[in-house]
Amino acid sequence: MGSFSENIKIAFQSLFLNKLRSVLTMLGIIIGVGAVVAVMSIGSGAQDSVIASIQGIGSNLIIIIPGSSQEDMGALNQFSTANKESLKLEDVEAIKKYSRHVRGVIPVILSAAPVTYFNKGINASVYASSEDAEKVYNFEIERGKFFSKSDVANSANVACIGPTVSDKLFGDEDPLGKTMKVMGRNFKIIGTIKSKGTNMFGQDQDNAMAVPITTAMNKLYGQKYLSMIIADTETEKDIDIASEEIIRILRKQHGLKGSDKNDFSIQSQTEILEALSTVTNIFTITIGSIAAISLLVGGIGIMNIMLVSVTERTREIGIRKAIGAKNRDILIQFLTESVVLSMSGGIMGIIFAGIIALVLNRYSPIAATISPFSILLAVSFSTFVGLFFGIYPAMRAAGLNPIEALRFE
Fold it and tell me: What is the pLDDT of residues 390-409, one digit of tens each?
């Protein structure tokens, strides 16, 4: 009986003896494993991105959006609630006054506006809120300061800008103290916001500016309603109680009776994270299942090629049996060749997935993270495919009659 290392050596010799046939046979495994690993890496990266994006705006958050339908969770994608008018500044004051479990609460208007500085101009996202947004919405000021309670009370024309706005309008020039125009109105820059990167929708969060809520309402948009209200709690366990309090407060504030539907929706940070993670998982499982079909096709290809190999090497099998090789030796040899063929395809598939991940990370907002688990899963799958689809050809080779095998032409 040959040693394990000898079996591996013979398997690779057989593989390299028919290079083109081996590559074509492995193609299904390469595509299948590559697709499975790539999809898992994209799913994992998307999940990490979702978590980072949501946690990046603060912790223990409760998000209140206008409209009664849960499908309005799309409000997180900036402009989807701009036409709904159920939330007002008075609601924020009521929550501040009557909720015992809310630590902080801020009004928010999300929109976009043309911003210019002399002959340079861009379209930037506008985050209009109160002075507490620095803490609740997790705005980190890199230089300068955030706008104050006095700025909000006086509808001051002041702004804090993100790195992208600073780079595009001012380049290497220090923006602090400079005056830019927002929708044709002069705004003094009092602070620069630390980079937040891209959010879960691939949008550049640094191409943004923060202004006082009253300034946006009275001078920019002329509106009295809010895009959303964001509240936070001391601890995660307070979120449910605080949410119930907010519902009671807003229903009373809006004059809703017992059977009336809420004209607002509440989503906690945890619920949003769970919902988005579920979507990501469904996507990963669905595409991964489709990719697994390619593994099945690749396995059938391996079985067919191994059967051809058994036929081509019938005399070799007869000679080996004639000089003392047992059925078990032949079985192990052909099974080893099948596994080596399948695992080689699996390794090439992992490399293929790695290239896809590198390209995505470099040229797209999609973050792809190849985990050790996905590599282990890919190797395990390709080993299983080699064993499962190689067992029948190996048993057929082991069962050949040595005398008839030697007569085979």
Answer: 999 989 888 888 777 777 66
Q: Please report, for the chain, the start and end positions of each structural domain, with discontinuous segments joined by +.
A: 4-52+275-407, 68-262
Q: Do 101 and 241 contact (CB within 8 A), yes or no?
A: yes
Average pLDDT over residues 230-234: 89
HSE-CB at 117 with a 13 A cutoff on CA atoms is 21
Q: What are phi and psi of 395, to 5 degrees?
A: -65, -35
Task: Give residue 330's Cα distance to chain centre.
Answer: 47
Residue 247, SS3 per DSSP: helix
Do 45 and 27 touch, CB atoms closer than 8 A?
no
Whole-number Å distance between alpha carbons of 266 and 95 = 13
- DSSP string of 319-351, one letter each residue: HHHHTT--HHHHHHHHHHHHHHHHHHHHHHHHH
Strand partners of residue 129: 212
- Name every residue whose Cβ is closer than 8 Å to that of residue 296 and which is 6 or more positions away in sequence: 32
34: which residues sit within 8 A by CB, 6+ positions away? Answer: 348, 349, 350, 352, 353, 356
Alpha-carbon span 333 to 50, nearest angstrom:
48
Tokens 């959006």 found at: 65
Average pLDDT over residues 218-239: 90
d(CA 234, CA 229): 17
**Are 320 and 330 in contact, with CB atoms under 8 Å apart?**
yes
Instruction: Check whether 289 has a pLDDT greater than 90.
Output: no
Residue 235: DSSP 8-state:
S
Q: CB 279: neighbour CB atoms within 10 A? A: 13
* pTM tops 0.85, yes or no: no
